[in-house]
Design brief:
59% of the residues lie in helices and 14% in strands. It is an alpha+beta fold. The protein starts with a helix and ends in an 8-residue tail after the last helix.
Length: 279
């Protein structure tokens, strides 16, 4: 073999070894979690099939005792929380997964009745127990026919699941679809606050949205959180108080994702040594 040929073969061999090494590095994490992911995916798919077919007993059997507590197998799908989550569902599509080891949360897009443009996202948390995964909890977004709002709500859901990168992708998608929607640009500003970036610009976006709808408690909550992060205690307490009062004027406020976030903000503020004023 000529010297030039040996050099050429050495280069090819090194490239092959590098390719094998890269392939192994890419495959091993995927292979390591694929079994658990597939198990959780199967459970969610079986659960949603049971829901769509009205098979209450099968759906009941696929859930943990926590979700089933106080319910009967034969009427499980008529219970308030399950009925609220899946009422109006015609079909579904898996669009994301957040794996936390013992808990895998599958994010599913639900489509509404035939001919409807309504969609909502549901995070279905599955707990790993002996014998496989079981559905443990739901995290809901609102139904919407707006594609921009759908991605905005998805951004919110992924943020609640601590997937900041996917949350940012979704809000940028929403903003590209409708930059004039105050729900979209306000949440974009809020996400910047969570990332501790562009805080002055974020505050302006939220203030602009609040000016569009001064009665919306979500914008009041965002303003309270912005002032809290800037160590403006007086302003943050005032906005949190106003948000709490506005939430309380809305039916079902305690179960809304916006109120859950508001409560989290107040709890984080309390952890720093202060509480909102008493009403």
């Amino acid at each position: 073999m000529k010297p030039g040929s040996r050099t050429c073969w050495k280069v090819i061999l090194v490239c092959l070894l590098l390719m094998v090494g890269v392939s192994g590095e890419m495959a091993s994490p995927r292979d390591g979690c694929s079994q658990g992911t597939d198990e959780a995916r199967t459970v969610v798919d079986r659960f949603l099939q049971a829901v769509s077919q009205g098979d209450s007993e099968t759906a009941f059997g696929l859930c943990t005792s926590g979700l089933r507590r106080g319910k009967r197998a034969d009427s499980f799908l008529q219970s308030a929380d399950v009925a609220e989550a899946f009422s109006g569902m015609r079909s579904w599509e898996l669009i994301g997964l957040v794996d936390r080891g013992s808990i895998a949360t599958l994010v599913v897009a639900l489509k509404g009745e035939e001919g409807s443009r309504q969609k909502r996202a549901v995070g279905i948390a599955c707990l790993k127990v002996s014998g496989g995964y079981r559905v443990r909890d739901f995290s809901l977004t609102s139904w919407t026919s707006s594609e921009a709002r759908f991605h905005r709500y998805l951004s919110d859901l992924f943020l609640r699941l601590d997937d900041l990168d996917r949350s940012e992708q979704e809000i940028e998608k929403a903003y590209s679809l409708d930059p004039e929607d105050p729900k979209v640009y306000a949440f974009r500003g809020y996400l910047w606050l969570e990332k501790r970036m562009k805080e002055d610009e974020a505050l302006l976006l939220i203030q602009k949205a609040h000016g569009q709808d001064p009665a919306d408690p979500e914008y009041m909550d965002f303003l309270g959180w912005a002032h809290h992060l800037a160590n403006r205690r007086k302003e943050s307490v005032e906005w949190f108080d106003r948000a709490r009062e506005a939430f309380q004027r809305r039916e079902g406020y305690q179960s809304s994702p916006e109120y859950v976030r508001f409560s989290s903000h107040v709890d984080k503020a309390k952890a720093k040594g202060w509480t909102p004023t008493q009403t």
